[in-house]
Specification:
single chain; 144 residues
Length: 144
């Protein structure tokens, strides 16, 4: 499994002046990738890498989110790498499938629905809740 691309991206991000909490999370994610050669496969039981993309409105005031049926959370669009080491390609491919962008395959998914955060969907609020960063076990609070 080629993990070098993900490690390179994380190393470049880690070289930035990061808040301490984020730096710890990046370090833990790097360690996770190094410890799990199968981290690009969803069969990696401790966890696995995914690719995701933030889709913003032209005025950058709204973002498109999808409700993840199994997790019961509103998340940015993305999906499983399924062995693909190019996480940017994964993100672009998955955001297209989930949101129904032309040329990206099916726009339907049995476990998710998409919405813009400006219109309040029924169910959990897209601006609140917790999300887990990489392999960090400590959830971080999302803000609107």
């Amino acid at each position: 499994m080629h993990r070098s691309g993900a490690l390179k991206l994380l190393a470049a991000h880690r070289a930035l002046a990061l808040p301490s909490e984020e730096a710890v999370c990046v370090d833990k994610t790097i360690a996770f990738i190094k410890e799990h050669p199968d981290c690009l496969l969803r069969t990696c039981l401790p966890g696995h890498l995914t690719g995701s993309a933030w889709i913003l409105s032209p005025d950058r005031r709204r973002t498109l989110l999808t409700h993840h049926g199994k997790l019961g959370k509103w998340l940015q669009l993305g999906g499983h790498a399924d062995g693909d080491p190019d996480l940017l390609a994964v993100a672009l491919r998955r955001r297209g499938r989930r949101a129904g962008f032309p040329g990206s395959g099916s726009s339907t998914s049995g476990s998710s629905t998409s919405t813009a955060t400006g219109s309040r969907p029924a169910g959990p609020s897209p601006g609140t809740g917790t999300t887990t960063c990489g392999s960090c076990s400590r959830p971080t609070r999302r803000s609107r």
